[in-house]
UniProtKB/TrEMBL annotation:
This is DUF6446 family protein. InterPro entries: DUF6446. Pfam families: DUF6446 (PF20044).
């Protein structure tokens, strides 16, 4: 009887682990339809503007505002766009093979790529960041300093827009 219970418990643990893995890697992501433009913020502009792209691939999820990832071809001058400090590429599921956060991090550190503002506060406290490198663009969403403070329950830093009502 004891052996049966051990096998049953191990089987349940394996099934639970496999289910959790599937949910994290596949279940909540949706592939986005092809798009012919993305929004980037030019230097000195008050709002993001549309820029033409080709070969767009993207994923997103309703379960979290930072699950967005996209890859595309773009002809844009990073020098004419608002730089983004502290860009931290977010990892994508392995099956979304056009987005490699590790390679993007290395390219940013070496100066081969430039991070620019896509859309500031696309949702409160969340910026869409775009990295431009060799005619390709890579986008993700990351928490900005206003969001970090707000989500931690702290007062937002000066210069942040007022947080939404909870």
């Amino acid at each position: 009887m004891g052996r049966f219970l051990v096998i049953l418990l191990l089987g349940c643990a394996v099934l639970a682990g496999a289910g959790m893995w599937y949910v994290q890697v596949y279940a909540f992501y949706d592939e986005l339809p092809p798009q012919d433009k993305v929004q980037l913020t030019p230097v000195g502009a008050l709002a993001a503007q549309d820029f033409a792209v080709t070969n767009f691939r993207g994923i997103d999820s309703d379960s979290s505002p930072i699950r967005y990832r996209a890859c595309f071809d773009i002809d844009a001058d990073a020098g004419a766009l608002t730089p983004y400090a502290n860009a931290t590429p977010m990892f994508a599921p392995d099956w979304f093979d056009c987005f490699d956060a590790g390679a993007l991090t290395l390219a940013l550190e070496s100066g081969q790529a430039q991070a620019v503002m896509g859309v500031s506060n696309i949702r409160y406290g969340i910026d869409r960041v775009v990295v431009l490198m060799d005619g390709r663009g890579y986008a993700w969403q990351q928490i900005n300093p206003c969001g970090t403070a707000h989500f931690d329950g702290d007062p937002v830093p000066p210069g942040c827009p007022p947080p939404p009502e909870r």
